[in-house]
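Final report, closing paragraph on structural work. Over the funding period we assembled a curated collection of sequence-structure pairs, and we close with a single example.
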Amino acid sequence: MGLTAPQEYVASQDDHTMCCALPGSGKSHTMVELSNNLVTKDPKYRVLLITFTRAAADELNERLRGKLSTSGIRRCEAATFDSIFGRQLKQAQTTKKSTIVGGEQYIFVERAMRHCGISIEIDEAMQWIDTYGRMIKPTPIQGDASTPGWLLFTAYQNLMEKTGKQDFNGIAREAYLGVEQGRIKPWNATHILVDEFQDTSDMQYQWIRVHGEYGAKLVVVGDDDQSIYSWRGAAGYENMENFQADFGARISVLNMCFRCRPEILAGAGRVIEHNEDRVPKEMISGRDAGGKVSVNGYLTSGDEYNAMIQAIQSDNKEWAVLARTNRILDEAETYLKMHKIPYKRLGGKKLWDDHVANIVLKLLWCLIRPKDTRFIGDIIGWLGEDEEVIQYVMQYLQTTRAPFADFISPAWLTWHPYTEELHNNWVDWGLDTKGQGELTARMKNIMDFLHKVRGNKGREARTIELVADIVTKLKIEGGFVDRIELLGKNLAPSTGNTEEETEQGVVTLSSLHSSKGLQWAQVWIAASNQGVCPSANSLEEESTGGIPEERRLFYVGMTRAVDELVMSFSHNPQPIGTQRSKEPSQFLYEGFPEEMEQEHIKLDHLAEEAKNKVEEDVE
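Its predicted structure, as stored:
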């Protein structure tokens, strides 16, 4: 595969460069070619390619191995930000802390809330932890140290310090500040290439910047029009401006999209051009004309999903159904099941990444592996145990290497009743079973105990029941221990990999966020309504990125389509139902004003017909 003139320009650089790349413009191919040119040019050059997911890093490394010489491969690698930060700290031997991720972090946040006497929803608590955690120098917002968010973050930091833990934000902060202050050596690379640069946070950018100041040549590749993660700290266009100001970098645009047919790319371009803060760029399709773009309005959501099913059944080369929210995907999934259409769903959280499922699995694991006491603090903390008791118990177990069942509470220590009940049942609940009846009874006892601790209604209760159901219904020979041994493999951190392979006849369901980086021949964006995309929060100016980010998100969804793109909305007019009327997304008006005018005429006619029918039925 050759290079276009813009790709060739980027691949020949040996200085600070900023490349703005359209969707499907071959940026990965260009970065591999640049890496090969650099390591071939000078045997002293060492190249680091940084991206955000392990899957993306693995793909780049595979491409590098297929392109570079043996000598070049030794001097070039792709890795994630988190991996590089962690390796820097390990090489500098600045910490021996273990890293908390996923469910374990939720448990720590709950413990911190309980310790400082704050009671807020766990999702809100996690947002505060992340907001302050992303700060290079965490300080109270607006200087108010009495806010629940700051008190929680302080308690969380103190708890991690006491228990020898760290999170990814803390690792990133230490890696940047360590290099900035001279305590940690800069990464051994003459050139640092950053993929998906628009997704970098302030912390990540500062790490990149300080390496540039130490002499590394920086090449950043991204697309400000695809910056959709401001809610997790991505700075998007702002970091592109910072990079240009800090390094006076050469600017190049990969403006040829090899994915979307011209009709699809043109429509997406008309939408995204309504954003003001963006790099202006000409968009050229490298495909032949012949793409199909449709904007379809329906009276009800039922009509919308039925039309979607009909389209899939009539021509199903490679459909993907995309939506702004998981609720909409749930509805689409129901219709696919109803019509027995095979599908797969991307982007949903894996069961064992859920903090409740994770802690229940940790409890079951520790019951059958009594010598493994790593998770005891998490478990009894989840039961509501006092923090001082947790610290004492964990110190005792680590010092004596005794199992939890052998811990003898001193006279001065007052257990939480739930911890005491668990301790009393520990040995019995960890014994193996010989029959299905005994297994079912065992899991019922444990489930009843957890329901007593956490409540028997709501999402947590359903998750507890789901884990118990999985344990009892596993299709394997063996009892309680064998089943937990098998499930215990899920205690390893998730790699973040997703099934990206497409299969003809199998419909893909994905959120707009999870669709980024993927493509399908046919794409249907469902529920393109105001208040959905753009979201209600963005309309009320309560979201970080506001309408511009929602527009970028819709643009990402549109540019996943290769040959056919359908954007649908439903109206639900008041006269024929109880649902509120919903306006079409403003993005449809921006990109397709003439088509929307025709859709309104059609919907007015259908609404009149429906109204007349209701009146006839009444008569």
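The radius of gyration is 27 Å. The CA atoms of residues 377 and 393 lie 8 Å apart. We thank the funder for supporting this effort.
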